[in-house]
């Protein structure tokens, strides 16, 4: 089993990375392998609704979104980390998630179906719960079980050193890692004992116009 930790901060090894590493260490202690990827700090376009992903099963723009999609199918779970920017996820991570998940959904890739996911948020002070809510909405649409901790998945600090001083935040990250490891092992055991995945139906897309 392995989990991919996605760093959505413009800083490669800043506060968000520090929080993700604490989750990763807890997963490793429970016997789950982890990798960390950074979405980078170059501009990421938002989705332009060209629908090319339906043909390509990837995004028409070649950047870190497609790098992620190429490896996502190899992982059993995901943790997405973001700093708080204007009481929401970073603009880059928002564009990244918009395109990555839509490319999979529209292209029929099925890379994320019933794989557990969690959002980890870092902030100097506020906006964390709004950001957590925002990111969790992606998981709900992708049929990804949302893993929680004993508190909302957030840490506080303006530097990695300050984040490490957030004792409750660090504990929340460790519990999150252990909870995800438990879920993964439960799923693995269920499949090994013959409990198959739920039956799926073709998508039915409707709107409010008859």
TrEMBL record:
Q: What is this protein called?
A: Flavodoxin family protein
- Matching InterPro entries, A to Z? Flavoprotein-like_sf, FMN_Rdtase-like_dom, ISF_SsuE-like
A Pfam family that the UniProt record links to this protein = FMN_red
Against SUPFAM superfamilies, the record matches this protein to: Flavoproteins (SSF52218)
An example of a GO molecular function for this protein is: oxidoreductase activity
NADPH-dependent FMN reductase-like domain span: 1-157
- Protein species of origin: Pseudoflavonifractor capillosus
UniProt keyword list: Flavoprotein, FMN
């Amino acid at each position: 089993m392995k989990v991919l930790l996605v760093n959505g901060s413009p800083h490669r090894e800043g506060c968000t990375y520090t929080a993700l590493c604490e989750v990763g260490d807890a997963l490793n202690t429970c016997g789950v392998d982890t990798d960390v990827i950074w979405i980078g700090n170059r501009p990421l376009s938002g989705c332009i609704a060209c629908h090319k992903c339906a043909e390509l099963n990837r995004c028409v723009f070649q950047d870190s979104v497609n790098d992620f999609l190429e490896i996502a199918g190899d992982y059993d779970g995901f943790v997405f980390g973001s700093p708080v920017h204007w009481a929401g996820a970073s603009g880059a991570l928002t564009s990244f998630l918009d395109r990555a998940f839509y490319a999979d959904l529209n292209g029929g890739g099925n890379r994320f179906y019933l794989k557990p996911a969690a959002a980890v948020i870092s902030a100097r002070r506020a906006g964390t719960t709004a950001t957590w809510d925002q990111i969790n909405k992606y998981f709900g649409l992708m049929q990804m079980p949302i893993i929680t901790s004993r508190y909302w998945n957030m840490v506080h600090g303006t530097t990695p050193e300050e984040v490490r001083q957030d004792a409750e935040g660090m504990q929340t990250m460790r519990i999150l890692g252990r909870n995800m490891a438990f879920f993964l092992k439960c799923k693995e055991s269920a499949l090994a004992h013959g409990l198959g995945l739920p039956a799926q139906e073709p998508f039915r897309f409707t709107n409010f116009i008859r």
